[in-house]
Amino acid sequence: MNSKHLIVLLFMGLFIVACKKSEPLIEELETFLGFQKPTNFPEPVYKFENNKITKDGFELGRMLFNEPRLSRNNTITCSSCHIQSSAFTQHGHDVSHGIDDRLGTRNSPPIMNLAWSRAFNWGGGIHDLDTQPITPITTHEEMDENLENVYKKLRAMPKYTSKFKAAFGTEEINTANFMKALSQFMLMCVSSNSKYDKVIRKESGASFTSEEMEGYVLFKEKCATCHSEPLFTDGSFRNNGLAISPVNDKGLYVATLLETDKYKFKVPSLRNLKYTAPYMHDGRFLSLNGVFEHYNNEVVNTQNLDPLLKGSKLGIMLASTEKTKIAAFLNTLNDEEFIKNPLLAEQ
Protein backbone atom coordinates (compact mmCIF):
# COMPACT_ATOMS: atom_id res chain seq x y z
CA MET A 1 0.00 0.00 0.00
CA ASN A 2 1.50 3.34 -1.01
CA SER A 3 1.39 6.49 1.13
CA LYS A 4 -1.35 8.08 -1.01
CA HIS A 5 -3.73 5.17 -0.35
CA LEU A 6 -2.86 5.25 3.33
CA ILE A 7 -3.75 8.94 3.59
CA VAL A 8 -7.07 8.36 1.82
CA LEU A 9 -7.96 5.52 4.19
CA LEU A 10 -6.98 7.64 7.18
CA PHE A 11 -9.28 10.47 6.15
CA MET A 12 -12.10 8.01 5.47
CA GLY A 13 -11.63 6.59 8.95
CA LEU A 14 -11.70 10.03 10.54
CA PHE A 15 -14.84 10.89 8.59
CA ILE A 16 -16.59 7.73 9.79
CA VAL A 17 -15.60 8.42 13.41
CA ALA A 18 -16.81 12.02 13.13
CA CYS A 19 -20.14 10.88 11.69
CA LYS A 20 -20.60 8.35 14.47
CA LYS A 21 -19.90 10.97 17.15
CA SER A 22 -22.44 13.38 15.65
CA GLU A 23 -25.15 10.79 14.95
CA PRO A 24 -26.98 11.23 18.30
CA LEU A 25 -27.22 14.99 17.79
CA ILE A 26 -28.24 14.64 14.13
CA GLU A 27 -30.95 12.18 15.16
CA GLU A 28 -32.12 14.52 17.95
CA LEU A 29 -32.37 17.50 15.59
CA GLU A 30 -34.07 15.56 12.81
CA THR A 31 -36.74 14.37 15.24
CA PHE A 32 -37.09 17.67 17.12
CA LEU A 33 -40.48 17.59 18.81
CA GLY A 34 -40.35 20.82 20.75
CA PHE A 35 -41.43 20.97 24.37
CA GLN A 36 -42.81 17.69 25.72
CA LYS A 37 -44.42 17.61 29.17
CA PRO A 38 -43.23 14.60 31.20
CA THR A 39 -46.20 12.42 32.10
CA ASN A 40 -45.50 12.68 35.84
CA PHE A 41 -45.27 16.50 35.77
CA PRO A 42 -48.13 18.99 36.19
CA GLU A 43 -49.17 21.38 33.45
CA PRO A 44 -46.54 24.09 32.88
CA VAL A 45 -47.29 27.69 33.81
CA TYR A 46 -45.31 29.24 30.96
CA LYS A 47 -47.58 30.63 28.22
CA PHE A 48 -46.40 28.64 25.21
CA GLU A 49 -49.14 30.16 23.07
CA ASN A 50 -47.08 33.38 23.10
CA ASN A 51 -43.81 31.67 22.18
CA LYS A 52 -44.17 28.34 20.43
CA ILE A 53 -40.91 26.39 20.50
CA THR A 54 -39.58 25.61 17.04
CA LYS A 55 -36.39 23.92 15.90
CA ASP A 56 -35.01 27.19 14.52
CA GLY A 57 -36.03 29.19 17.58
CA PHE A 58 -34.47 26.65 19.92
CA GLU A 59 -31.24 26.51 17.91
CA LEU A 60 -31.05 30.31 17.93
CA GLY A 61 -31.60 30.35 21.68
CA ARG A 62 -28.82 27.80 22.14
CA MET A 63 -26.48 29.95 20.03
CA LEU A 64 -27.30 33.03 22.10
CA PHE A 65 -26.91 31.13 25.36
CA ASN A 66 -23.32 30.36 24.36
CA GLU A 67 -22.55 33.75 22.74
CA PRO A 68 -19.84 35.85 24.49
CA ARG A 69 -21.00 39.01 22.67
CA LEU A 70 -23.80 39.25 25.20
CA SER A 71 -21.17 40.63 27.60
CA ARG A 72 -19.40 44.00 27.54
CA ASN A 73 -15.98 42.67 26.59
CA ASN A 74 -17.15 39.58 24.69
CA THR A 75 -15.78 37.10 27.24
CA ILE A 76 -18.77 35.92 29.31
CA THR A 77 -21.64 33.75 28.11
CA CYS A 78 -24.78 32.54 29.84
CA SER A 79 -23.10 29.15 29.87
CA SER A 80 -20.12 30.57 31.77
CA CYS A 81 -22.23 30.54 34.93
CA HIS A 82 -24.69 27.85 33.85
CA ILE A 83 -22.63 24.81 32.82
CA GLN A 84 -24.52 21.78 31.52
CA SER A 85 -22.32 19.19 33.26
CA SER A 86 -23.19 20.93 36.54
CA ALA A 87 -26.94 20.91 35.78
CA PHE A 88 -26.48 24.45 34.45
CA THR A 89 -24.89 25.87 37.61
CA GLN A 90 -21.36 27.25 38.11
CA HIS A 91 -19.97 24.27 39.97
CA GLY A 92 -17.32 24.86 42.61
CA HIS A 93 -18.03 28.55 43.14
CA ASP A 94 -19.89 29.71 46.22
CA VAL A 95 -21.02 32.87 44.40
CA SER A 96 -21.04 33.56 40.68
CA HIS A 97 -17.92 34.83 38.90
CA GLY A 98 -18.75 37.24 36.08
CA ILE A 99 -16.98 39.69 33.80
CA ASP A 100 -13.40 40.63 34.78
CA ASP A 101 -13.79 37.88 37.40
CA ARG A 102 -16.10 40.12 39.43
CA LEU A 103 -17.88 38.35 42.25
CA GLY A 104 -21.62 38.41 42.74
CA THR A 105 -23.33 37.82 46.06
CA ARG A 106 -25.34 34.73 45.13
CA ASN A 107 -24.76 31.23 43.84
CA SER A 108 -25.71 30.57 40.21
CA PRO A 109 -29.09 28.79 40.30
CA PRO A 110 -29.62 25.79 38.02
CA ILE A 111 -31.50 26.19 34.76
CA MET A 112 -34.01 23.36 34.67
CA ASN A 113 -37.77 22.90 34.58
CA LEU A 114 -38.34 26.64 34.22
CA ALA A 115 -41.64 26.08 32.40
CA TRP A 116 -43.13 25.36 35.84
CA SER A 117 -41.69 28.44 37.57
CA ARG A 118 -43.73 31.52 38.41
CA ALA A 119 -40.83 33.60 39.72
CA PHE A 120 -37.12 33.68 38.98
CA ASN A 121 -33.83 34.34 40.78
CA TRP A 122 -33.05 33.65 44.42
CA GLY A 123 -34.56 36.95 45.45
CA GLY A 124 -37.50 37.08 43.07
CA GLY A 125 -38.55 40.31 41.38
CA ILE A 126 -38.94 38.68 37.94
CA HIS A 127 -42.15 36.88 37.00
CA ASP A 128 -41.67 36.33 33.27
CA LEU A 129 -38.99 34.06 31.82
CA ASP A 130 -38.99 36.21 28.66
CA THR A 131 -37.56 39.13 30.63
CA GLN A 132 -35.26 37.25 33.00
CA PRO A 133 -32.07 37.46 30.84
CA ILE A 134 -32.09 41.26 31.09
CA THR A 135 -30.79 41.00 34.65
CA PRO A 136 -27.60 38.99 34.05
CA ILE A 137 -26.81 40.83 30.81
CA THR A 138 -27.00 44.28 32.42
CA THR A 139 -25.76 43.53 35.96
CA HIS A 140 -22.32 45.03 36.75
CA GLU A 141 -20.98 41.82 38.32
CA GLU A 142 -22.27 39.54 35.58
CA MET A 143 -22.16 40.61 31.90
CA ASP A 144 -22.13 44.39 32.38
CA GLU A 145 -23.58 45.15 28.95
CA ASN A 146 -26.68 46.90 27.62
CA LEU A 147 -29.15 45.35 25.24
CA GLU A 148 -28.71 47.78 22.35
CA ASN A 149 -24.98 47.09 22.25
CA VAL A 150 -25.74 43.37 22.20
CA TYR A 151 -28.10 43.82 19.26
CA LYS A 152 -25.56 45.92 17.34
CA LYS A 153 -22.96 43.19 17.68
CA LEU A 154 -25.38 40.48 16.60
CA ARG A 155 -26.72 42.49 13.63
CA ALA A 156 -23.19 42.59 12.22
CA MET A 157 -23.11 38.78 12.04
CA PRO A 158 -24.93 37.18 9.07
CA LYS A 159 -25.32 33.89 10.93
CA TYR A 160 -27.59 35.66 13.42
CA THR A 161 -29.64 37.72 10.99
CA SER A 162 -30.33 34.59 8.94
CA LYS A 163 -31.18 32.57 12.04
CA PHE A 164 -33.57 35.26 13.35
CA LYS A 165 -35.18 35.21 9.89
CA ALA A 166 -35.62 31.44 10.05
CA ALA A 167 -36.95 31.52 13.62
CA PHE A 168 -39.21 34.59 13.54
CA GLY A 169 -39.71 35.49 9.88
CA THR A 170 -37.62 38.66 10.05
CA GLU A 171 -33.94 39.52 10.17
CA GLU A 172 -34.72 42.25 12.70
CA ILE A 173 -33.01 41.62 16.03
CA ASN A 174 -35.16 43.17 18.72
CA THR A 175 -35.84 42.58 22.39
CA ALA A 176 -39.01 40.54 21.91
CA ASN A 177 -37.47 37.95 19.59
CA PHE A 178 -34.10 37.95 21.34
CA MET A 179 -35.75 37.10 24.66
CA LYS A 180 -38.13 34.56 23.13
CA ALA A 181 -35.22 32.69 21.57
CA LEU A 182 -33.37 32.47 24.88
CA SER A 183 -36.59 31.28 26.53
CA GLN A 184 -37.01 28.57 23.92
CA PHE A 185 -33.62 27.13 24.80
CA MET A 186 -34.14 27.39 28.57
CA LEU A 187 -37.62 25.86 28.38
CA MET A 188 -36.14 22.80 26.73
CA CYS A 189 -33.84 22.26 29.73
CA VAL A 190 -36.19 19.72 31.27
CA SER A 191 -34.83 17.32 33.87
CA SER A 192 -37.28 14.44 34.19
CA ASN A 193 -35.36 11.19 33.68
CA SER A 194 -33.88 10.47 37.08
CA LYS A 195 -34.34 7.12 38.79
CA TYR A 196 -37.14 8.72 40.83
CA ASP A 197 -39.02 9.66 37.65
CA LYS A 198 -38.64 6.18 36.20
CA VAL A 199 -39.91 4.60 39.41
CA ILE A 200 -42.90 6.94 39.55
CA ARG A 201 -43.69 6.29 35.88
CA LYS A 202 -43.14 2.55 36.37
CA GLU A 203 -40.62 2.43 33.54
CA SER A 204 -38.45 -0.60 32.79
CA GLY A 205 -39.15 -2.21 36.13
CA ALA A 206 -37.38 0.60 38.00
CA SER A 207 -37.71 0.41 41.79
CA PHE A 208 -36.24 1.95 44.90
CA THR A 209 -33.88 0.02 47.13
CA SER A 210 -35.11 -0.50 50.69
CA GLU A 211 -32.86 2.35 51.89
CA GLU A 212 -34.11 4.69 49.16
CA MET A 213 -37.72 3.84 49.99
CA GLU A 214 -37.16 4.47 53.68
CA GLY A 215 -35.52 7.77 52.74
CA TYR A 216 -38.50 8.62 50.53
CA VAL A 217 -40.87 8.09 53.45
CA LEU A 218 -38.72 10.28 55.69
CA PHE A 219 -38.44 12.91 52.97
CA LYS A 220 -42.21 13.15 52.63
CA GLU A 221 -42.50 13.52 56.41
CA LYS A 222 -39.74 16.08 56.98
CA CYS A 223 -39.00 17.90 53.71
CA ALA A 224 -41.82 17.67 51.19
CA THR A 225 -43.88 20.63 52.42
CA CYS A 226 -41.37 23.02 50.81
CA HIS A 227 -39.75 20.62 48.34
CA SER A 228 -42.91 19.17 46.88
CA GLU A 229 -42.97 16.52 44.18
CA PRO A 230 -42.37 16.15 41.30
CA LEU A 231 -40.42 19.41 40.87
CA PHE A 232 -39.09 19.20 44.43
CA THR A 233 -39.83 22.85 45.10
CA ASP A 234 -43.11 24.57 45.81
CA GLY A 235 -41.78 27.72 44.14
CA SER A 236 -42.27 29.80 47.28
CA PHE A 237 -39.90 32.18 49.05
CA ARG A 238 -39.00 31.29 52.63
CA ASN A 239 -36.55 32.14 55.39
CA ASN A 240 -34.87 28.84 56.27
CA GLY A 241 -32.93 30.18 59.24
CA LEU A 242 -29.52 30.84 57.73
CA ALA A 243 -27.21 33.03 59.80
CA ILE A 244 -27.11 36.49 58.24
CA SER A 245 -23.99 36.82 56.11
CA PRO A 246 -21.62 39.84 56.13
CA VAL A 247 -23.20 41.15 52.90
CA ASN A 248 -26.60 41.09 54.67
CA ASP A 249 -28.53 39.89 51.62
CA LYS A 250 -32.19 40.52 52.45
CA GLY A 251 -33.56 38.26 49.71
CA LEU A 252 -37.10 38.88 48.47
CA TYR A 253 -37.26 42.16 50.41
CA VAL A 254 -34.95 43.78 47.83
CA ALA A 255 -37.68 43.27 45.22
CA THR A 256 -40.79 43.98 47.31
CA LEU A 257 -39.57 46.30 50.12
CA LEU A 258 -41.97 44.46 52.44
CA GLU A 259 -40.69 43.82 55.96
CA THR A 260 -42.39 40.43 55.89
CA ASP A 261 -40.14 39.40 52.98
CA LYS A 262 -36.78 40.04 54.62
CA TYR A 263 -34.38 37.08 54.41
CA LYS A 264 -36.73 35.03 52.27
CA PHE A 265 -35.20 33.23 49.30
CA LYS A 266 -36.69 31.01 46.64
CA VAL A 267 -37.00 27.36 47.64
CA PRO A 268 -34.63 25.51 45.27
CA SER A 269 -35.38 22.24 43.57
CA LEU A 270 -33.58 19.24 45.06
CA ARG A 271 -33.08 17.65 41.67
CA ASN A 272 -29.50 17.01 40.53
CA LEU A 273 -27.84 17.77 43.87
CA LYS A 274 -24.95 15.53 42.83
CA TYR A 275 -23.97 18.15 40.26
CA THR A 276 -24.96 21.47 41.84
CA ALA A 277 -22.85 21.90 45.01
CA PRO A 278 -22.29 24.18 46.84
CA TYR A 279 -25.73 24.80 48.29
CA MET A 280 -27.96 27.69 49.45
CA HIS A 281 -28.34 31.10 47.80
CA ASP A 282 -24.78 32.05 48.69
CA GLY A 283 -23.19 28.62 48.32
CA ARG A 284 -22.20 28.49 51.98
CA PHE A 285 -22.53 24.71 52.34
CA LEU A 286 -20.06 22.61 50.39
CA SER A 287 -21.79 19.29 50.99
CA LEU A 288 -25.22 17.80 51.53
CA ASN A 289 -24.16 16.87 55.04
CA GLY A 290 -23.60 20.57 55.72
CA VAL A 291 -27.19 21.22 54.70
CA PHE A 292 -28.44 18.48 57.01
CA GLU A 293 -26.42 19.91 59.89
CA HIS A 294 -27.90 23.33 59.30
CA TYR A 295 -31.45 22.06 59.66
CA ASN A 296 -30.52 19.82 62.57
CA ASN A 297 -28.49 22.22 64.74
CA GLU A 298 -27.81 25.58 63.12
CA VAL A 299 -31.16 27.22 62.30
CA VAL A 300 -31.18 30.83 63.53
CA ASN A 301 -34.37 32.60 64.59
CA THR A 302 -33.91 35.52 62.23
CA GLN A 303 -36.67 37.88 61.15
CA ASN A 304 -39.46 36.04 59.26
CA LEU A 305 -38.14 32.57 60.05
CA ASP A 306 -40.46 30.07 58.39
CA PRO A 307 -43.03 28.75 60.92
CA LEU A 308 -42.25 25.19 59.80
CA LEU A 309 -38.84 25.52 61.44
CA LYS A 310 -40.17 26.73 64.76
CA GLY A 311 -41.01 24.43 67.65
CA SER A 312 -39.57 23.28 70.94
CA LYS A 313 -36.28 23.35 69.05
CA LEU A 314 -35.55 25.28 65.88
CA GLY A 315 -35.02 23.28 62.71
CA ILE A 316 -35.73 19.73 61.60
CA MET A 317 -34.61 16.91 63.85
CA LEU A 318 -32.58 14.37 61.89
CA ALA A 319 -30.88 11.35 63.38
CA SER A 320 -27.71 10.11 61.72
CA THR A 321 -29.49 7.12 60.17
CA GLU A 322 -32.25 9.40 58.88
CA LYS A 323 -29.71 11.63 57.12
CA THR A 324 -28.22 8.60 55.41
CA LYS A 325 -31.59 7.36 54.22
CA ILE A 326 -32.78 10.78 53.01
CA ALA A 327 -29.47 11.23 51.16
CA ALA A 328 -30.03 7.86 49.48
CA PHE A 329 -33.42 9.02 48.26
CA LEU A 330 -32.08 12.39 47.10
CA ASN A 331 -29.55 10.56 44.98
CA THR A 332 -32.44 9.12 42.98
CA LEU A 333 -33.19 12.67 41.79
CA ASN A 334 -29.93 12.93 39.84
CA ASP A 335 -30.58 12.95 36.10
CA GLU A 336 -27.50 11.96 34.12
CA GLU A 337 -29.42 12.04 30.85
CA PHE A 338 -30.12 15.73 31.43
CA ILE A 339 -26.54 16.81 31.99
CA LYS A 340 -25.37 14.76 28.98
CA ASN A 341 -28.20 15.64 26.59
CA PRO A 342 -26.42 16.48 23.29
CA LEU A 343 -29.33 18.67 22.23
CA LEU A 344 -28.50 21.12 25.05
CA ALA A 345 -24.75 21.14 24.49
CA GLU A 346 -22.86 24.02 22.87
CA GLN A 347 -22.45 23.41 19.13
Automatic annotation (TrEMBL):
Entry's cofactor comment: Binds 2 heme groups.
Post-translational modification: Binds 2 heme groups per subunit.
GO MF term list: cytochrome-c peroxidase activity; electron transfer activity; heme binding; metal ion binding
PROSITE patterns attached to this UniProt entry: CYTC, PROKAR_LIPOPROTEIN
Coarse class of the protein's main subcellular location: periplasm
Cytochrome c domain residues: 210-334
Protein's cellular compartments: Periplasm
Pfam families for this protein: CCP_MauG
Chain residues that bind heme c 1: 78, 81-82
PANTHER family to which the protein is assigned, alphabetical: CYTOCHROME C PEROXIDASE-RELATED
Record's protein name: Cytochrome c peroxidase
